[in-house]
Amino acid sequence: MDVLVNAAVSADGKLSSRRREQIAISGEADFARVDRLRAEVDGIVVGVGTVLADDPSLIRHDEAHRRKRRGPNAPPPVRIVADSRCRTPTGADVLAGGPTTYLLTSEAAPPERREALRDVGAETVVAGDERVDLGEAFGRLEDDGIERLLVEGGGELIFSLFEAGLVDELTVFIGNMIIGGRDAPTLADGEGFVSAFPELELAGVEQLDSGVVLEWTVR
Ligand SMILES: NC(=O)C1=CN([C@@H]2O[C@H](COP(=O)(O)OP(=O)(O)OC[C@H]3O[C@@H](n4cnc5c(N)ncnc54)[C@H](OP(=O)(O)O)[C@@H]3O)[C@@H](O)[C@H]2O)C=CC1
Ligand SMILES: Nc1nc(O)c(N)c(N[C@@H]2O[C@H](COP(=O)(O)O)[C@@H](O)[C@H]2O)n1
């Protein structure tokens, strides 16, 4: 399994403001770059915090790029939400129409919520007791032929993926704004590391929109 993390942060490293609303940090050219990234993967992943804050549909991608890279019959990327307790609203855009949506959940999810989400078409994968065991859940996705994932956020999920040693590549758009705020989400939140910090190797730098895209591989 290949896992690429991509996100847009302000110059001070924030994913959003303390209100946790969706903020346009990047511009048109960067969204086009993300659409190409989406076109190259089997699945797009977000945490339930992002679903509750942004209500993304995770459908848009560069279809021409997908056909070129994956062939004319490649199905669209599936959508995946890490949601231990099945808090995703049944009316969320990530569940509407389009490609399959996997909900990675845990034993702690109330059975009636799991059932309600299955009723609106979600494929549930139960992995972990209290929280989603991301390694186990990704292994189950792999069993379904999902080999390459794009993780779009947010900061809690991204930290857990680094902690579990599951990230292969990281691309970050750094935008021309300061958001600030000690409670505003950053690229990697969670508990944070105090030692054995994951190390990255710089693989590319590109000026785009009013910011810069950094490409890193994880050592
Ligand atoms: N600028 C950008 O590129 C992007 C910005 N954002 C912003 O990020 C913010 C949302 O980020 P954040 O609040 O961190 O939420 P996340 O999207 O990272 O979701 C976090 C939630 O995922 C669930 N989860 C399930 N399993 C795990 C696990 N193993 N590790 C960690 N989390 C797990 C947890 O809820 P539970 O325990 O209930 O399962 C957790 O609270 C919003 O403000 C959004 O706008 C989001 C994406 C991109
Ligand atoms: N790449 C990027 N740049 C920004 O400035 C952003 N605010 C985000 N946010 C994420 O974009 C995704 C939107 O998904 P849909 O277009 O609704 O499919 C979602 O993951 C947001 O959190 N990304």
Automatic annotation (TrEMBL):
<feature type="domain" description="Bacterial bifunctional deaminase-reductase C-terminal">
    <location>
        <begin position="3"/>
        <end position="214"/>
    </location>
</feature>
<comment type="similarity">
    <text>Belongs to the HTP reductase family.</text>
</comment>
<dbReference type="InterPro" id="IPR002734">
    <property type="entry name" value="RibDG_C"/>
</dbReference>
<dbReference type="InterPro" id="IPR011549">
    <property type="entry name" value="RibD_C"/>
</dbReference>
<dbReference type="Pfam" id="PF01872">
    <property type="entry name" value="RibD_C"/>
</dbReference>
<keyword id="KW-0560">Oxidoreductase</keyword>
<dbReference type="GO" id="GO:0008703">
    <property type="term" value="F:5-amino-6-(5-phosphoribosylamino)uracil reductase activity"/>
</dbReference>
<protein>
    <recommendedName>
        <fullName>2,5-diamino-6-(ribosylamino)-4(3H)-pyrimidinone 5'-phosphate reductase</fullName>
        <ecNumber>1.1.1.302</ecNumber>
    </recommendedName>
</protein>
<dbReference type="InterPro" id="IPR006401">
    <property type="entry name" value="Rib_reduct_arc"/>
</dbReference>
<keyword id="KW-0686">Riboflavin biosynthesis</keyword>
<dbReference type="InterPro" id="IPR050765">
    <property type="entry name" value="Riboflavin_Biosynth_HTPR"/>
</dbReference>
<keyword id="KW-0521">NADP</keyword>
<comment type="pathway">
    <text>Cofactor biosynthesis; riboflavin biosynthesis.</text>
</comment>
<comment type="subunit">
    <text>Homodimer.</text>
</comment>
<dbReference type="GO" id="GO:0050661">
    <property type="term" value="F:NADP binding"/>
</dbReference>
<dbReference type="InterPro" id="IPR024072">
    <property type="entry name" value="DHFR-like_dom_sf"/>
</dbReference>
<dbReference type="GO" id="GO:0009231">
    <property type="term" value="P:riboflavin biosynthetic process"/>
</dbReference>
